[in-house]
Amino acid sequence: MTSRQILGEVSPKLGEMTVDMLCGDIWEQPELSKRDRSLITVANLVALYRTDQLNGHIGRALDNGVTRFEISEVILHTTF
Fold first, then answer.
1. Does residue 40 contact residue 27 with C-beta atoms inside 8 Å?
2. How far apart are the C-alpha atoms of 73 and 29, rounded to whole Å?
3. Which pLDDT score, from 0 to 100, does residue 22 have?
4. How many structural domains are present in the chain?
5. Which of 9, 31, 54, 63 shows the smallest number of beta carbons within 10 Å?
6. Which domain holds residue 80?
7. φ, ψ for residue 29 (rounded to 5)?
8. In the Cβ-directed half-sphere of 48, how many Cα atoms lie within 13 Å?
9. 36 and 46 assigned to the same domain
10. 36 and 26 assigned to the same domain
11. 2 and 37 share a domain?
């Protein structure tokens, strides 16, 4: 079970607010592109060893214009 699922079960309102804040506010701020936010998110998930969330965010990164090569480089750079 992912941390998001656990949060949703323990406190559904907090889970809903978290998703709303992340998807509705943070990802929509104009200062960084969604592409840049995706690269940052993938790097953070690798650094924090949050592999349960990595696949979904890699898919989102690809949708946001990040190339497979760039994702590979971010993972390699963050790992070492």
1. no
2. 25
3. 66
4. 2
5. 31
6. 32-80
7. -65, 135
8. 10
9. yes
10. no
11. no
